[in-house]
Amino acid sequence: MKNKITLIKLGHVGHLVNLEKIRKWKSDIFEVTEIHCVEHLPESNVNDGFLDQKFTIKELSKIISCPKNSDIAVAIMPYRFIDNFYMHRISNNCVVISLYGIPEILEIDNISTENFILKQIYEICAIKYLVKDISSSDVYEFVHRDTRGCIFDLNGDREDILYNTEKPIICESCKDTFKKKQINSTTISTLEKELKKIKKPLILRIERRIKKYPFAAIIISGLIAISLNLIASLIWDLTKELLKNQ
Ligand SMILES: [Zn+2]
User: Fold this and answer.
1) CA–CA dist 174, 178 (Å, integer)
2) How far is the CA of 241 from the centre of ligand 1 (A)?
């Protein structure tokens, strides 16, 4: 069964992420049914000596609710949580993702913010298969502190999102957890198949390969140039033969 997701823009987040791209994402795990917007947020009451907007889970839970026709509301804000973590489950069907400082980290490896949001949505959906109430502390049974490239990596060090945003996996121990919870194998394989699709566009993947293996790239481009040259002279010779025989 597909999870119906309502995305909520909190404040001015449009310059950081294009939610239409998320809406168009083809998935058998979730579908984005609506995009809402809460443009004006109240002034933060947190007084930590800094003047920027930041929120507590309690403050946000008063602002956000999940529409009746949706299973989960995922709100996205440019502001930070007071603990600086990037995602909190604020009620049994509402989650808030903070993009504060996230695009700067993703930029290191040319990863799009949209891919980051997609991976978070898959994580939320996966958690929903495992526990009835996504806000319960039972969730901490499933996440692990070590970074394995898995959707259940805790990412205590925020920079670790570089290793599990694109083509994330469900590690063997997390797969066992799914099996113990009697989640059927088709759901697990659908999740795995769709997670592999969270990747850079082809041109950026090629650029990344070139940066990683510059010497091999020079040899390959040299070989391509030689092959093109050979093909061109072959075509020229054939054309000459054809013209001669006419
Ligand atoms: Zn795992």
Assistant:
1) 6
2) 64
Dihedral pair phi/psi, residue 163, rounded to 5°: -100, -5
Residues facing residue 91 across a β-bridge:
94
What is the whole-number distance in angstroms between the Cα of residue 192 and the centre of ligand 1?
12
CATH of domain 3-201: 3.40.390.10
pLDDT single digits (tens) 205-240: 777 777 777 777 778 878 888 888 889 888 988 888
Question: Which residues fall within 8 angstroms of residue 128, CB to CB, at 6 or more apart?
Answer: 3, 71, 72, 134
Place of tokens 């930041």: 54
pLDDT at 33: 95
Question: Alpha helices, DSSP H only, in the chain?
Answer: 19-23, 57-63, 102-107, 113-130, 161-164, 172-180, 185-195, 202-212, 214-245
Domain ranges (residues) in the chain:
3-201, 213-245
Compute, in angstroms, the gap from residue 115 CA to the centroid of ligand 1.
Answer: 19
How much is the CA Rg of the chain, to the nearest whole Å?
24
